[in-house]
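Please check this record.
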Amino acid sequence: MTTSRLPLYRQIEADVRDRIRSGALPPGAQVAPEPELMAEHGVSRATVRQALAGLVAEGLLEIRRGLGTYVTAPRFEHTIGGFYSFSREIERHGLTPGTRVLGLRTEPATDIVAEALGLPAGTRIVALRRLRLAGPDPLVVETSHLPAARFPGLETIDFSQVRLYDTLMTQYGCRPTRARETFEPVLLTADEARLLDQRRGEPALRVERIAFDQDDVPIEFCRSTVRGDRYRYSVELRDR
């Protein structure tokens, strides 16, 4: 270890930080276990833990219970206030958006879905469940509900290859123009954790959206579960 006037834990912090910034430790990489860092730097376990805690506080590292310490992956940020496309947001960060279709069928609308879409309970709707990805990483599990009568044949389209809103515009002449979203902190269920490559009970965000068309008619009720470690929402406030 090089001689420095910095405290030992600060020297370890600087070393690991430099490795992260140089790409030697890329996002998602596991940091060497504590015994290896102790031997490499000739310090105690308490010193190593103090250094790692500092990098966790900076947001550079994350501790995964029972697994170890990892370099954090970049967070995706969505500013609330404008109409939002998941695919375009991922592209804006230089990554390739992906979609895995988990289910696509017609079914009777539940009371909650029917109320959101302004339909009688039991009306046939199309339910599209998808896993949304940024590169290889799963970020969101979401289910969209749309009126089947308004969009005949929607259940036959391969949404792993095309975007939902683009399809509504090109095939049905329906242009989503605004949406109303609500947010709620939740803990991942076993199924959601499996799909999102997380542990059951990890914190996540539940987002419910009602989208409206150019005539201000509700066309989609979507319920999403978003990974809490990779996504965040921000709000810009202005003085009127």
Q: What stands out?
A: The chain has a mean pLDDT of 89. The helical segments are 8-22, 34-41, 45-58, 86-92, 111-117, 164-172, 190-195.
